[in-house]
Amino acid sequence: MAAAVKPSARKGPPRILRRAGRALGVPLLSVLIAFVAGAIIVAVTGGNPLQAYQALICGGFGLFCFGGEPSVLQLSNTLVFVTPLIMAGIAVALPFRAGMFNIGAEGQLIMGAILATTVGIHWSGLPAVLLVPLVLLSGALGGALWGGIVGVLKATTGAHEVVTTIMLNFIAQWFLRFLIIGGPLQLPGGSSKSSPIGGNAQLPTLLPHDNTIIFGLPGAVYRAHTGIFVALIAAGVFAFLLWRTSLGYEIRAVGQSQRAARYAGISVRQTLIVTMLIAGAFAGLAGAVQIAGVDHNLTDQYFSDTTGFDAIAVALLGLNSAVGIVLSAILFGALHAGGSVMQSDAGVSGNLVYVLQALILFSIAANFLRTVKLRLPSVGRVPLTPEADAAAAAVAQETDTALAGDDKDIA
Amino acid sequence: MTEQSLAIEMRRITKKFPGVVANDQVDLEVRKGEIHALVGENGAGKSTLMNILYGLIKPDTGQIVIDGKPVVMQGPRDAIRHGIGMVHQHFMLIPVFTVGENVVLGREPGTAGDLYDHARAREAITALTKRYGLSLDPDARVGDLPVGLQQRVEIVKVLYRGANILILDEPTGVLTPQEAMELFGVLRDLVSTGKTIIFISHKLKEVLEISDRITVMRRGKVVGHLKTSDTSEAEIARLMVGRDVLLRVDKKPAQPGPVALRVENLTAVSDRGISALHGISFELHQGEILGIAGVEGNGQSELVEVLAGTRRPTGGRVLLGDREVGQLGAAAIRSAGVSHIPEDRRGAGLVLNYSVADNLILGRQRTPLFSWDGIILRLKAILDWARRLIKEFDIRTPSSTTPARTLSGGNQQKIIVAREMASQPRVLLAAQPTRGVDIGAIEFIHRRLVAQRDEGAAVLLVSAELDEIRSLSDRIAVMYEGRIVSIEKADTPEERLGLLMTGGGAGERLKAG
């Protein structure tokens, strides 16, 4: 606000650019810090950071590739990672907006994948026009149920969502194990996976999925699928829900101030439940898209899948906004896709990607923790020394004064 | 006047915060043994100046002279060393500790084995309280004491640390009129023993009553050095605000209509599960302002919350017209025509990070005016509404999309007032509508409350400020310990109200402490 009054600011770039700059500042800085730290780690462990990052960028975006596989393949691989990350990221971001920390996107995703697979196998005779939406919807339903449990528990017993979501993640994973190892969904023949869903239940790939040679390789190697459109639509729906609907207004109000929400006649409990239902639906949709788009069956890979956890990084880096989530999902998707290329081309362990991801999260956490702290109810503070009191009072005072000062600019 | 007679001299103090000059070439001279009032609206720079004096903030430029010697404050430790003590507005006491333990905290007298020496602590405190005529029981638990005595503990704490100059930040904000009178007695006694007092306040009546001289600040600058005996409330107000201020509320006699709200034998419990309302009954007519006077914490908050639907009553009835609304939720009560200006402006009345426009529809986000079928927000209608209300209620904001957090308290309150009044309510519940708001906004809100009344609304006004209650109300109900002890006429003298507010003879409690 003060900036708008300063003459120097007026000469700068247009307002929308400045706003974008402010919004991007923290995330970009976090990414930069992470990459610098990552480079140091690579150098210290005897690698060449430049070569590592070149391979990473090549593997992620198909840029700066010196020989090797075609760029389009790298982009296609990245898209495969990006697609579920967007939807799972929304599943984390939406509860954040309501003041909840959904660590359960993974469990919700798995339940979505299970229900989508079941439907995809069971009704494989239906035409694709019906079956694909049905598979996606049932995935969303599975996730919504799983998320809904969290919301109901939170609203009725006050059980903390961090605890319940973690527990439900385990339950979902072990339920999946039960289903595909000796359980009803196991493919006969002893392997720990389910039967594939019917062809009509599958989302088409972006490029023809046959032996036509495209960019020097058979079309079948390009796995990128139309699920990316589902993900982008989901991001659009998320933004619309949040900013253009009464429900979104209420969700944000509950997240900002439950007291104000109650004053406004908003049922906080109901809003928390609805939020978790919707969030779960997005995660479940991610699972369904993953099944219908690339995997086509449940496998033991889902035991070690981390999409739902990477989604936390996606949501945080994306500042819980739709555009931010899409952008950060692209970043993390590219990192994951690029990791294997980095390992093969630069000889740097692909695990560096996880280090980078953790470093990005870490540097955001500093900022993130502050916002969380502001939201927590303040615990009765015991004054230890007059100095400590005074210092705290000074900080509070300075903030107040600065704010009051801002008002003067207006008046 | 010689240099010798000055306890404190602050010369050309300037302090800039990002985007604002909080103190601009401020001069302050406080004489030894006087009560010096520092007045100004919120954000005028009083607190910054005092924090500079107390070493909490370093000035950009300027000089502080104490007892004729220039000093540099590196922190509160230095200030305390120079004999400056601060009594904060919000007490910094540990409720479960005794008076003695609180006073010596941080400077506990120890025994040889470095154990806390109870006897010596008690001795020291008794000596102090005797010398300054402050009655306090060193063994009483602070949590059990009334607010007025807790404040006295703060004062003794400061004296214990050897303060000669006491800064009191809005000391009467939490006190009853009686407690305030007792505080003034204490302050006069302190001054008579040679202490110097800086009294920060925006209550002009008090300032006129207690101070010897007054420094008025506005927008970071000193706009007047006054001698209390030569000035008036109107002059100080004009200096503070920068224009003439109407201190009295202009209103015509009320034209009460039929009963709008009838409350019968209402009971409710507080957040802590303790019974807060013990059978409240009253009638509120259209076209009248019924004031609820009382010391805070006597059930006023709970009463308003029950009436607004944010707290469930445990018994009794609330009739809006002839409709029972006691068990309805906040949304239903609001749509039945009850508006609510909540006492917790920043916590409940606003979503601080929401824009002004979004705050102007809080609680109405599903009404047909602002949404299609309660599902999709009508953004254009919301913006039009915001523009209209910003203009009509003179909300000073750069734009309707500015976050409410960045506005001043007065403008934040105007958002709430605008929202709650613009829907033309049948009943308006106004809880502490001008708390912490500057004089200009107070004047505005008072005029609006009376205008609502004249348009036929039934207004329930809850305020801790007796002056406000007396100048606005057509009838005054006094609450004490969850009951309405009396309903009085508007011109009831302050003394009588004060007595009723403390339960008649309950004022004795203070002296007994």
In short:
The complex is a heterodimer of chains A (411) and B (513). Chain A is an all-alpha fold and 411 residues long.
What features would you describe in this structure?
The complex is a heterodimer of chains A (411) and B (513). Chain A is mainly alpha-helical and 411 residues long. Chain A has two domains: 2-377, ABC transporter involved in vitamin B12 uptake, BtuC (Orthogonal Bundle), CATH 1.10.3470; 387-411. Helices cover 71% and strands 1% of the residues of chain A. Chain A has 16 helices and two strands. Chain A has helices at residues 2-5, 7-10, 15-44, 49-61, 71-97, 105-122, 128-156, 161-180, 227-244, 246-256, 258-263, 268-295, 307-317, 322-346, 352-375, 386-410, and strands at 213-214, 217-218. Chain A has a two-stranded antiparallel ribbon with strand order 1-2. In chain A, a hairpin with a 2-residue loop joins β1 (213-214) and β2 (217-218). In chain A, α5 packs parallel to α9 (227-244), α5 (71-97) packs across α10 and α13 crosses α14. The two termini of chain A are 13 Å apart. Chain B has 513 residues and is an alpha/beta fold. Chain B folds into two domains: 3-241, 3-Layer(aba) Sandwich (Rossmann fold), CATH 3.40.50; 259-352 and 421-512, Rossmann fold (3-Layer(aba) Sandwich), CATH 3.40.50. Helix content of chain B is 33%, strand content 26%. Chain B is globular and about 70 Å long. Mean pLDDT of chain B is 88; it is low at 505-513. The interface between A and B is large, with 51 and 71 residues.
